[in-house]
Backbone:
């Protein structure tokens, strides 16, 4: 029984970790876009 819960937690943690990493990346990109706009430059 305990191993079932551990396995379920292991499987379910990956979407949460992925969402956290994606959030960090998106926030960084948005911040860079805003900085580029304020400086009057292109992002790329």
Residues:
């Amino acid at each position: 029984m305990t191993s079932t819960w551990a396995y379920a937690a292991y499987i379910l943690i990956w979407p949460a970790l992925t969402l956290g990493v994606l959030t960090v990346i998106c926030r960084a990109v948005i911040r860079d876009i805003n900085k580029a706009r304020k400086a009057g430059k292109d992002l790329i």
In short: Residues 1-44 form one domain. The chain has one helix and no strands. Helices lie at 2-39. The mean pLDDT is 93.
